[in-house]
Amino acid sequence: MTDEPLRVLVVDDQQLVREGLTALLELTDGVEVVGSAGDGKRALELIAGDPPDVVLMDLNMPVLDGVAATAQIRDRFPGVAVVVLTTYADDESIAGTLAAGARGYLTKDAGRAEIGMALRAAARGQSLFDPAVAARLAKAMSRPAAPPRPDSLPDGLTQREAEVLSQIARGRTNAEIAAALFVAEATVKTHINNAFAKIGARNRTEAASYANEHGLTL
Fold it and tell me: Where is the Response regulatory domain positioned along the sequence (predicted)?
């Protein structure tokens, strides 16, 4: 263990929120706020100059949002952990953020003690989630596993593309598919585009019909 304080960067597009979080964290034992930023791009610039231990990250921000910023931080600065603090607790936000590499997810109802625990857990490589988020994750993990696939998928489909087609056949939206597969919605869109090109589907109805005809939903 080290006696050095946990160095935290606060990122939120609202100045009042940034100042409030900074003041709150300064009252937390063992935590030092080393800077703040109003968008993901500025956060990356600050991290490049002086990497913190943990970034406390908002999601809905201009220039570069929290999900995209988290993905870039995890790619460019793997030693820096990210904990999300947001007003959103929907499946799409949760799935996208976790897929980007965040180690914690709290809503802005969280108190100082809970935020402090999440920051320390992230710095140790562990995760801590808001109770509502944890409940959603548990529900998603309890869903039936994806149906078995043929050893050789038709038309050169990858396993993930077949899973996405199966989800489309079940009538699920892109956001629902992202939550079910624990990937970002942008990733789902990429898989859909690739799958449609391979099977010659022009819309979701044709894709669903293909999935049923080829046994991808069994």
Answer: 7-123
Instruction: Quote the pLDDT of residue 109.
Output: 85
Closest CA to 55 of 3, 111, 7, 106: 7
CATH architecture of 154-213: Orthogonal Bundle (1.10)
- Which residues are CB-neighbours of 206 under 8 A, at least 6 positions away? none
Q: Is residue 62 within 8 Å of residue 83, measured between CB atoms? A: no
Residue that the structure tokens 């603090």 belong to: 85
Instruction: Give the Cα separation of 103 and 51 in Å (integer).
Output: 17
CB 68 within 8 A of CB 40: yes
Q: CB–CB of 113/29 below 8 Å? A: no
**Coil, strand or helix at 215:** coil
How many CB atoms are located within 10 Å of the residue 172 CB?
Answer: 17
- Please state the domain extents for the chain: 6-139, 154-213
Dihedral sign for Cα 87, 61, 92, 136, please.
negative
Residue of 138, 114, 117, 113 lying closest to 126 (CA atoms): 117
Q: Specify the CATH architecture of the domain 6-139.
A: 3-Layer(aba) Sandwich (3.40)
Place of tokens 């080393």: 34
Nearest-angstrom CA–CA distance, 54 and 197: 41
